[in-house]
Amino acid sequence: MSARPISRRRLLCSGLAAASLGHPFLQLHAQQASRELFTLGVASGTPRPDGMVLWTRLAPEPLQAGGMGDAPVDVRWEVAEDERFRRIAAKGTATATAELAHSVHVEVQGLQPGRPYWYRFTAGGARSPVGRTRTAPAEGDEAAQAIRFAFASCQQYEQGYYAAYRDMAAQPLDFVVHLGDYIYESSWGSRHVRRHEGGIPTQLAEFRDRYALYKTDAHLQAAHAAFPWLVTWDDHEVANDYTDDVSPRTIDPAQFLAIRAAAYQAWYEHMPVPASMRPRGADATIYGRHRFGRMLDLLLLDGRQYRSHHACLAGRSASPLADCADRSAPERSFLGAKQEAWLANELAAPPARWTVVAQPTLLAEADRKRGPEHGYWMDGWDGYAASRTRLLDALAANKARGGDALVVSGDVHAFWAADLRREPEGPAIATEFVGGAITSEGPSAASVANMLAKNEHLRYGRADKRGYALMTLDARGCAVEFRAVDDEKNADSAVAPMARFSVARGAPGVHLETT
Q1: Are 173 and 149 in contact (CB under 8 A)?
Q2: Nearest Cα to 66, choosing from 271, 184, 204?
Q3: Neighbours of 245 (CB within 10 A)
Q4: Is the C or the N end of the chain the one with fewer CB within 10 Å?
């Protein structure tokens, strides 16, 4: 089935999102035939041992401000131990309001740890597709059961179809991590296969419509309906290359913070996240620790909201390669002082078997300039060298963490595997994997080859394919698989393994298994 956008009035939820879980097409009551409510599908997220967040949004006219008007609507929800809903584990009613674009975020509690559940919503006589989710293992669970998750980022809607999500939805996963650029505010790239509606969003209604457009994709809905997600953001959810309170396009802080407030609000309305992440104006706390038994601590970071402004650049663009002393200034921070302190405290705490730091962009140093001179991309961690050093020092200082620490990253539209070192010739203290891009166009083969030649700790790089990554963790080691889409311009494209890697417990460093 092609995942092309549908008409504004067509029932989306009865498509691939339901079919991917083996459910028949869901029928609405006759009186609701022209008022399909669940066009944006269902989702779950932030899994805990006793529950998770369930999400949906009522939107009979998803690309025309939702079409719900101003009245609140009661939405019934059910969680079951079986996909036929014969054994109901929890149920209740939430209220969808115009203030939140008639989205609902149900924080379910009282479930059993480490097992699958199924859920659905009902409103106005219409029933949603069924979603499948899973609770996290109990925090003290010593069972050496493997944890398997996917991580992905960068899904520019115009540049390709979401075949990668079709493949992801068929995988046996515990959860998905999305590392940012869920939407793109701007249009760019070549050979577009579909189009954004409207220009660059700056108002809340415009950001809502952009999210709705992306979420009409049936393959994306299928991946949301199949597993719980953990999500962070990068820049394109707001504005390209923004830092804290300015962007290259909007340098007046007051004007930009109004845009950021609208963007953060729309992000919250469309993500399966708890009320604690709801923005207060232009501020929202989304970083945090997520524990999965004794196997995994996943530390999810926010790399945009608190960061220092770009160094070494005289103009508005963050794209030119540059170098200067300011990029290593100790006061500069990628994460902000408060988040850095929180992260250092988490890394000093008693660990699980594995620690995964999930954050938006390539952490490893990457000298990108061709020839003997040095040049760095100031919008990445290379523009915040002291902040990166503090993170690596914290991993090295806490050997129980550092020995079994992994970093998963996105943003750069390429697949990378890297050894993370404090000094160029020093030992690896952690291992990084960048999972490509779902659709967004990547750098040239020449650029990747240059980076591999100039940065020997970058052990693998490829940017000619789109896709995502799978990570499996157990008591013995870590296995990573890069999965590539044959042709992202084809909605029915095949997806297959491109490379496999392993990392042994207590021995950080990339080991290429197969290509």
Answers
A1: yes
A2: 204
A3: 17
A4: C
**Cβ atoms 381, 312 nearer than 8 A:** no
Maximum separation of any 2 CA atoms in the chain, in Å: 71
Model confidence pLDDT, tens digit, residues 387-446: 999 999 999 998 767 669 999 999 999 999 999 999 888 899 999 999 999 999 999 999
CA-nearest of 424, 427, 433 to 461 is 433
Asked if 419 and 510 touch (Cβ cutoff 8 Å), the reply is yes
Return the number of other C-beta atoms located less than 10 Å from residue 88's C-beta.
11
pLDDT at 22 over 70: no
Q: What is the DSSP string of 457-512?
A: TEEEEE-S-EEEEEEEE-SSEEEEEEEEES-TTSTT--EEEEEEEEEETTEEEEEE
The total of other beta-carbon atoms located within 10 Å of residue 506's CB is 11
CA dist 204 to 173, 180, 258, 474, 491, Å?
A: 34, 19, 10, 43, 30
pTM, full prediction: 0.93
Beta-strand ranges (E) seen in 88-190 are: 88-96, 103-108, 116-123, 126-127, 131-134, 147-152, 175-178
The DSSP secondary structure of 316-382, one letter per residue, reads: S-S-SEE--GGGG-TT--SS-HHHHHHHHHHHHSPP-SEEEEEEEE--S-----SSSS--EETTSGG
Each as own residue / partner, the long-range contacts of residues 29-36 (CB below 8 Å, 24 or more positions apart, any chain) are 29/125, 29/126, 31/125, 32/124, 32/125, 32/126, 34/9, 35/60, 35/124, 35/126, 36/9, 36/10, 36/11, 36/12, 36/60, 36/126
Distance (Å, whole) CA 102 – CA 115: 30
Query: What is the 3-state secondary structure of 309-329?
Result: CCCCCCCCCCCCEECCHHHHC
